TrEMBL record:
Signal peptide: none
Alphabetized UniProt keyword annotations: Membrane, Transmembrane, Transmembrane helix
Segments traversing the membrane: 6-22, 29-47, 53-75
Domain of life: Bacteria
InterPro entries: Glcn_transporter (IPR003474)
One cellular component term from this protein's GO annotations in UniProt: plasma membrane
GO molecular function, one term: gluconate transmembrane transporter activity
Pfam families in the record: GntP_permease
Lineage, broadest ranks: Bacteria, Pseudomonadati, Pseudomonadota, Gammaproteobacteria, Enterobacterales
Protein name: Inner membrane permease YgbN
PANTHER family noted in UniProt: GNT FAMILY GLUCONATE TRANSPORTER, INNER MEMBRANE PERMEASE YGBN
């Protein structure tokens, strides 16, 4: 898949995410899950791999955030 196609898919995903949260009043976490699923499928990731990719991506982000929250709690900020 070409770079331009992937950029267009990403842009469409961002627009869809904003519309779901702002106009449709969908909860942000649910909207993020739905849009990430659709973007992954549109980008050509096999349906069986989408869940694994999403879990791996979110796990990395949550791991980083957990460290920041833990250090903030220890410092009493």
């Amino acid at each position: 898949m070409s770079t331009i196609t992937l950029l267009c898919i990403a842009l469409a995903g961002v627009i869809m995410l904003l519309l779901l949260v702002i106009k449709a009043k969908v909860q942000p976490f649910v909207a993020l899950l739905l849009v990430s699923l659709l973007v992954a499928l549109a980008a050509g990731i096999p349906a069986g791999e989408v869940g694994k990719v999403m879990i791996a991506g979110m796990g990395g982000v949550l791991g980083s955030v957990t460290i920041i929250i833990g250090l903030g709690a220890m410092l009493g900020v």
